[in-house]
Amino acid sequence: MTRPTKSHGRLSIRAASEPRELIEERPPLRDAWTARVITLFPNAFPGVLGLSLTGKALDEGLWRLEPVDLRPFGEGRHRNVDDTPAGGGPGMVLRPDVMAAALAQAAEGTPPDRSEWPVIYLSPRGTPFTQATAQRLSRTRGVTLICGRFEGLDQRVIDHVGIEEVSLGDFVLTGGEIAAQALIDATVRLIPRVLGNQASTEAESFSDGLLEHPQYTRPATWAGHDIPEVLLSGHHGEIARWRRDRAERLTKERRPDLWRAYCAAHGRDPDEDQEL
Q1: Coil, helix or strand for 150?
Q2: Which one of 72, 78, 141, 175 has the fewest CB atoms closer than 10 angstroms to its CB?
Q3: Which neighbouring-strand residues pair with 119?
Q4: Could you tell me the fold of the domain covering 210-265?
Q5: What's the pTM value of the predicted model, to 2 decimals?
Q6: According to CATH, what is the number of the domain 6-188?
Q7: How far apart are CA 94 and CA 111, in angstroms?
Q8: Model confidence pLDDT, tens digit, residues 53-92
Q9: Which of helix, strand or coil describes residue 13?
Q10: What's the angle, vertex CA 221, arms to CA 220 and CA 225, rounded to 5?
């Protein structure tokens, strides 16, 4: 049997004539967090997920990626996965029976409790994806992601299966593959040992409801611009206060919605300190 290529992920759902341990160079850790991705383009994975720290963690078995090709579940000679929208209109809609069959295979070996293994459809009408969502998903055993195409997915399968809809923002992509990779990346980096320095995830944007403060490095002077003096002072208390102040200023200026939520959570007046 031909060994699966990395472009299909370290693991994929497929029949094998050899035991799994003879196929893989390094078996995944037991109970490693797993992303199963239902897609018409399995070759799009791992994509950028196979690079840098997420790729290294994938190779080391700290998490698993299992693309599920939707096409083989299609109907008829041409394996059709879509049909015209009921009531008329442009485009095509993914069929509920086809998606249900793919979801049934993707559900094999997963816990029935959706809090342990969510099923998510990447959709522009879904609940906004946030850092809190990534943190929630990183604490599960895995996730099944549905990459939409065309005009979307038949509502009946969404209702019948109880699929969670998640959106990356107020824009429309040609498919859910890029959105799925972004969601996986944001989640995998929160898994212990993936980044190596877990403290770095605790001091970045959105970790405490604020945007991250500005960052600087050597040289101390570049193109006539100096690193703020306080950052070179060695006074950790002053540095922490400066960073908090800049984080608050940036958040109030660029994300008033986050600023209001932050103030509400901390019992503060969002209009306080007019200099912010």
Answers
A1: coil
A2: 78
A3: 144
A4: Trp Operon Repressor; Chain A (1.10.1270)
A5: 0.84
A6: 3.40.1280.10
A7: 26
A8: 999 999 999 999 999 999 999 999 999 999 999 999 999 9
A9: coil
A10: 125
